[in-house]
């Protein structure tokens, strides 16, 4: 497994943000026409030939974040991902002042204010504000769980779910309490822990 040191963000040029999701380098690429029906009436998702149908093996995603164990197909995607861990959030919403690491995150956030859900499931009509959410939703229809743990073979719909699961095997705890320095494997567990300090 190839791991990388966190690069300095000073004077570092980051590549353009992904169109819809900073995880887009890991997700299935589903063509704009999404589904075609075959003669039996079953829905078949059509995948772009540029992308492999499975991106779960370490060989196919050799670039690994040494903070959260998320895996990437390209080193450039990992470099962009490290920006998230840097704590820098230069993109601010002019409606509510919430800040984001990536411009793409701000663009997705704006849809909360506008109510826009431009990504529609061709099977059931459910709509989503993010393309990545639609792609994950399609897997509920197909039963596809492409992200497989190399340790125990447990599979997941989203790569982010696999990244969290991998921490059970590696013992990685990237979320640390600023008050008592206790660390946790998930952000939601840290938030629950903070209630203990707030009660004091």
Automatic annotation (TrEMBL):
<keyword id="KW-0238">DNA-binding</keyword>
<feature type="domain" description="C2H2-type">
    <location>
        <begin position="91"/>
        <end position="118"/>
    </location>
</feature>
<keyword id="KW-0804">Transcription</keyword>
<dbReference type="InterPro" id="IPR013087">
    <property type="entry name" value="Znf_C2H2_type"/>
</dbReference>
<keyword id="KW-0539">Nucleus</keyword>
<dbReference type="GO" id="GO:0008270">
    <property type="term" value="F:zinc ion binding"/>
</dbReference>
<keyword id="KW-0805">Transcription regulation</keyword>
<feature type="region of interest" description="Disordered">
    <location>
        <begin position="1"/>
        <end position="27"/>
    </location>
</feature>
<dbReference type="GO" id="GO:0005694">
    <property type="term" value="C:chromosome"/>
</dbReference>
<dbReference type="GO" id="GO:0045893">
    <property type="term" value="P:positive regulation of DNA-templated transcription"/>
</dbReference>
<dbReference type="InterPro" id="IPR036236">
    <property type="entry name" value="Znf_C2H2_sf"/>
</dbReference>
<keyword id="KW-0677">Repeat</keyword>
<dbReference type="Pfam" id="PF00096">
    <property type="entry name" value="zf-C2H2"/>
</dbReference>
<protein>
    <recommendedName>
        <fullName>C2H2-type domain-containing protein</fullName>
    </recommendedName>
</protein>
<feature type="domain" description="C2H2-type">
    <location>
        <begin position="147"/>
        <end position="174"/>
    </location>
</feature>
<feature type="domain" description="C2H2-type">
    <location>
        <begin position="63"/>
        <end position="90"/>
    </location>
</feature>
<keyword id="KW-0479">Metal-binding</keyword>
<dbReference type="GO" id="GO:0005634">
    <property type="term" value="C:nucleus"/>
</dbReference>
<dbReference type="Pfam" id="PF13912">
    <property type="entry name" value="zf-C2H2_6"/>
</dbReference>
<keyword id="KW-0863">Zinc-finger</keyword>
<feature type="compositionally biased region" description="Polar residues">
    <location>
        <begin position="1"/>
        <end position="14"/>
    </location>
</feature>
<feature type="domain" description="C2H2-type">
    <location>
        <begin position="119"/>
        <end position="146"/>
    </location>
</feature>
<dbReference type="GO" id="GO:0000981">
    <property type="term" value="F:DNA-binding transcription factor activity, RNA polymerase II-specific"/>
</dbReference>
<keyword id="KW-0862">Zinc</keyword>
<comment type="similarity">
    <text>Belongs to the krueppel C2H2-type zinc-finger protein family.</text>
</comment>
<feature type="domain" description="C2H2-type">
    <location>
        <begin position="175"/>
        <end position="200"/>
    </location>
</feature>
<dbReference type="GO" id="GO:1990837">
    <property type="term" value="F:sequence-specific double-stranded DNA binding"/>
</dbReference>
